[in-house]
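Tokens in:
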């Protein structure tokens, strides 16, 4: 593995770890409460998981075995 690849991978990991606190800080400065952010994040996550499960069920039903 090259040094450039390791550096890029390390930067991506650092950015992923910093994204949630930075997002909450920016939203708090903008006047949005943290509880509201968590409520919307939970709603989006739930909708995505329902969609994923429906897709998996659809694939199982339409699988020609």
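Residues out:
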């Amino acid at each position: 593995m090259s040094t450039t690849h390791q550096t890029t991978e390390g930067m991506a990991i650092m950015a992923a770890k910093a994204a949630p606190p930075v997002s909450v800080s920016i939203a708090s400065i903008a006047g949005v409460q943290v509880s509201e952010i968590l409520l919307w994040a939970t709603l989006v996550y739930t909708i995505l998981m329902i969609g994923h499960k429906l897709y998996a069920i659809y694939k199982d039903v339409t699988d020609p075995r």
